[in-house]
Amino acid sequence: MSDRIDAAIIALNARLNRAALDGTARFVVPGEGTILVDSDGARIGDSSADVTLTADGDVFEAIVTGDLDPASAFMSGKLDIDGDMGLALQLAGALG
Questions:
Q1: Which secondary-structure segment (H or E) carries 27?
Q2: Nearest-CA neighbor of 71 among 83, 57, 52, 85?
Q3: Residue 1 has pLDDT above 70, yes or no
């Protein structure tokens, strides 16, 4: 795993603060790693998930730090979402 992924897990857990999510989300950062997020928090993992969000490292980092709104990233084509859009929106709200 990359240092970016390790830092993202810490930031996600701080921002999400055990948000009640209705499923499991997977962030995929090609070439760097994969993070699973659910009501228990964020952790390294590549298990199946209800929704998969894929972005390059810079976009992912901007989303995690709050510098880029996930909805804006999706609408501009910088973030791909596959699966449960409702859960993706719920995750975006928890990050907001």
A1: strand 25-29
A2: 85
A3: no
